[in-house]
Structure formats: structure tokens, C-alpha cells
Design a protein that fits this description.
124 residues; three-stranded antiparallel β-sheet
């Protein structure tokens, strides 16, 4: 698998999203992507209770630990590389979490307009 260039939506080098918990399609702490990443795990989102409940409701339970996959479950405040389509769906339904633009891969722009990402941006 060849990674796409590590560039964020601002055109700068992609910054890490989270090492604890370790995130990303490549589990490298960054929202890097490649052609094999069918879900486009490119949006660095800060989990909220509202978003975690929403994600579980629509069929992607991110809060329940799954030890068989070495996944301890996410909690509010954790950063995680979300699928761009799921982020857009949540944003459209009023449940979109805050995101880090510097840690969001530019390939997210294939799915999510920059204006939507900017509306959800945080500086932390």
C-alpha cells in the first residue's frame, strides 16, 4: 500500500491526530490514506458524547471496547481519524464533532467541502 502524500486540507504537512489512542488507517497516529482506504479515514475529529452516540446509532460503535481488535473504545475528548463520509453525514444531521484542520488529510476534500470542515474546526 502506498500512502498518498501527507498533506492537510490547508496545504501544509499533515500533523498527527492521535497516538493515544493510536488512530489512522495505517495506525500511525495520522489520518493518512491510500487507494485501499475505502472509507477515507481522513478527518481528525475530537470525540464528543453526542457524536459517539450518533455513530453507534448509525451502526458504527466507536465507544465499546473490542479487545480482539486491540481497540479500547473511544471516549469524549479522544481524537480519531473518521471516515470523511461519516463525518459529513453527522455534520449534515447536526451531530458533527469538532475537527483539527492541520491533522485532516487533504483527501477529505474529495468528500467534504472545506467550508463544512472549517465550520467544525477547533484550535486545540
Amino acid at each position: 500500500m502506498n500512502k498518498d502524500p501527507s498533506v492537510n486540507v490547508l496545504g501544509d504537512p499533515l500533523e498527527p491526530c492521535s497516538i493515544d489512542p493510536v488512530t489512522g488507517f495505517f495506525r500511525d497516529g495520522c489520518c493518512n490514506t491510500c487507494s485501499e482506504d475505502q472509507g477515507s479515514h481522513t478527518v481528525c475529529a475530537i470525540m464528543t458524547a453526542e457524536f459517539l452516540a450518533y455513530s453507534k446509532y448509525v451502526g458504527n460503535d466507536l465507544s465499546t471496547p473490542r479487545p480482539e481488535f486491540h481497540f479500547s473504545g473511544l471516549k469524549p475528548g479522544d481524537a480519531w481519524c473518521l471516515c470523511a463520509g461519516r463525518f459529513l453525514q453527522a455534520a449534515d444531521e447536526g451531530a458533527g464533532p469538532r475537527i483539527r484542520l492541520a491533522s485532516t488529510h487533504r483527501r477529505a476534500l474529495d468528500i467534504v467541502p472545506l467550508e463544512v470542515l472549517t465550520e467544525h474546526a477547533t484550535d486545540d
